[in-house]
Amino acid sequence: MDKEQKETCRAAALALLPVAVVWTVFAVDHVFNLELLRYGLVPLDVSRLYGTCTIPFLHSGLDHLISNTPPLFLLVFGLFLFYDRKAWQILLNLYLISGLVTWCMGRRESIHVGASGLVYALAAFHFLSGLVRKVPRQMAFSLLVAFLYGGFVWAFFPALYINTPISWEGHLSGLLTGIALTFHYRRYGPPMPPDPFLDEEEDCSDDRMEEEGRE
Hints:
By secondary structure, the protein is mostly helical. The chain has eight helices and no strands.
């Protein structure tokens, strides 16, 4: 197994950790009937500020959890694949800041739960990072995110979610957080691959110098 394959396997294994935690919390909650949803995020309630940490681990039902699982895994996988040691720091910041922004701007009469805010933060971070850094591998992943989750853009229109339990504020909070952290971490990530034409130019220069020397 070469280095690139090892890095891919490592990123996949690490991406399973947050997914496993989310599923474990859901399973324990339903097996023991703990009603953990009451510990969700309640905006602007200082006594419920802990909800900024609990929100991505709580889901209203199995369908809600299943819908968040594939994007959460893929986007966290991309984070560990491209950012290695910085990945945990970036993930923690996306997680905490998106929760805090939701706490500041969400509907106060609602309890907000679900990993959607974190998913949107990750998606925005990956998409914009590919455009900003212009590293081919990241750009390819950015296009994959746009292809798979381009429909996420509809989540930022409140009018579409009137009389629904969907937290568009959480989605918007994730988007804003992902954009902000893209520029904060723009100097990190995979390096630009070497220019193959540069070696050819150097070879040509060496050849010319040898020819001139013979003359």
